């Protein structure tokens, strides 16, 4: 078994600060006296880039959790907007509901099956309702009123 190299305290500190997001990348490199050339070598290093990628995946996972947590509230507010006195607001809310209901499910490209294969994603919305079809449907509904 090959022993993996550990990151230095300086490399970990740079990654930590980058993901805290309080200052820009160059300011962090300057603070830790890391040249752009050295930083590029770190990024090309398998151990450093793997940790960097792991942090990126964790950040996206946290974002997805937050969005999922508030999705029911957002959906309820969107449905309430369909009853707005302002026609344009109600129309846009209807269009958003239709387009989001038939949007293809996107998946994190980093997610794998049990066999370590990438999970498949679909480019076509379920039911085949395109944005153009949804718009025509809304137009027809508006004409009925």
Outline:
The protein is 64% helix and 0% strand. It has helices at 9-20, 25-31, 36-44, 46-81, 87-101, 131-144.
Overview of this protein structure:
This protein has 145 residues and is mainly α. It has 2 domains: 7-70; 82-145, no CATH class. 64% of the residues lie in helices and 0% in strands. The protein is built from 6 helices and no strands. The chain has helices at 9-20, 25-31, 36-44, 46-81, 87-101, 131-144. The longest helix is centred in the middle third of the chain and has 36 residues, at 46-81. It is elongated.
Helical proportion, percent range? 55-70%
Radius of gyration: 23 Å
Question: How many β-strand stretches?
Answer: 0
Number of domains as seen in the coordinates:
2
Look at the structure and give the mean pLDDT: 80
List low-confidence stretches.
119-126
Rough outline: elongated
Characterize the main sheet. Answer: none
Structural class category? mainly alpha
Q: Distance between the terminal alpha carbons, to the nearest Å? A: 71 Å
Give helix and strand order, one letter per element, not per position.
HHHHHH
Quaternary organisation of the protein chains: single chain
Strand content: under 5%
Number of helices: 6
Structural descriptors:
single chain; 145 residues; mainly alpha; 6 helices; elongated
Write the layout of secondary structure elements.
Layout: H1 9-20, H2 25-31, H3 36-44, H4 46-81, H5 87-101, H6 131-144
Helix pairs in contact: 4-5, 5-6
């Amino acid at each position: 078994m090959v022993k993996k190299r550990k990151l230095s305290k300086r490399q970990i500190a740079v990654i930590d600060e980058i993901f805290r997001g309080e200052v820009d990348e160059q300011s962090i490199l300057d603070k830790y006296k890391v040249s752009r050339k050295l930083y590029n070598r770190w990024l090309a290093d398998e151990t450093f880039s793997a940790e960097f990628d792991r942090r990126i995946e964790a950040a996206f996972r946290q974002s997805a959790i937050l969005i999922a947590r508030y999705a029911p509230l957002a959906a309820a507010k969107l449905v309430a907007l369909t009853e707005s006195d302002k026609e344009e607001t109600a129309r846009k809310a209807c269009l958003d509901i239709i387009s989001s209901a038939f949007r293809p499910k996107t998946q994190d490209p980093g997610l794998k099956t049990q066999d370590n294969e990438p999970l498949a994603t679909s480019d076509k919305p379920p039911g085949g309702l395109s944005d153009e079809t949804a718009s025509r449907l809304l137009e027809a509904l508006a004409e009925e009123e």
